[in-house]
Amino acid sequence: MRKLIDLSQPIENKGHARPFHPTPVVWTHLSHEESAPIWKKGGFSAMVKGVIVSDHSGSHTDAYTHMDTRPSAESIDQLPLHLFFTEAVCIDCSHVPPRTFITVNHIREGLAKAKLELKRGDTFLYHTNHYERYFKDRTKWWTEFAGLDGEAMNFLADAGVVNVGTEAFSIDNPAATLPDADPPYPAHQVCRDRKVLNTENLIIPQELVGRRFTYIGFPIKIVGGTGGWIRAVAVLDER
Question: Largest Cα–Cα distance in the chain?
Fold first, then answer.
């Protein structure tokens, strides 16, 4: 028997927005009351929502064009589907203090504790309990989390990981996302240079820690998109 676990954060009106990105706007563009008179015979109506949102809102995967200025860099609609349907592993990093770096040693220790090995083509998720701790706090949501350092991201790339997923709005330490960071976004820069995807704003429950499972996170097909919203799902084999 298979168990499906929803890993996706919501997109809602006036919902969470990372710095320098637009706040989501969701409105009723056409209500049932407004549409009912359109159909002369009656008995039918339809409601339609309008949405204005960044392509990096909610649970989403970054396309290579988000960080790579080269004309050859793929936008979200150009990325092959097999990158979003993979085997995956999850380790526990909830003990790493916010605003510090997740290092190679943390990853090695997490894998060893769970008796897991990374395989080429894997998606790598790390549990920090960030969603449960800080999602309802609009200030701490974007400041209180740990992020991968460049060495850790290179370690994952060397192991053949194709996608890295976090509960926070960035796989980088929040201090590394500020305008005066030196260097800025080191983990993102490794993803750019090594062609590794990163997926942000997930819900990664404790239940996944220490497990190997199937990860599905197909992005919406936005032509030219620098990222794409996903409905991320973990598929567990419960036999």
Answer: 68
What is the Cα 177 distance to its own chain's centre?
16
- What does the block give as tokens for 42? 């009656």
Structural Rg of the chain based on CA atoms: 19
- List domains and CATH numbers for the chain: 10-52 (no CATH), 55-237 (3.50.30.50)
At 14, which amino acid appears? Answer: K
Residue 27 neighbours by CB distance under 10 Å: 10
Per-residue pLDDT of the chain (239 residues; tens, 9 = 90+): 899 999 999 999 999 988 889 999 999 999 999 999 999 887 899 999 999 999 999 999 999 999 999 999 999 999 999 999 999 999 999 999 999 999 999 999 999 999 999 999 999 999 999 999 999 998 899 999 999 999 999 999 999 999 999 999 999 999 999 999 999 999 999 999 999 999 999 999 999 999 999 999 999 999 999 999 999 999 998 77
**Is 0.85 surpassed by the pTM of this model?**
yes
Structure tokens at 168: 């926070």
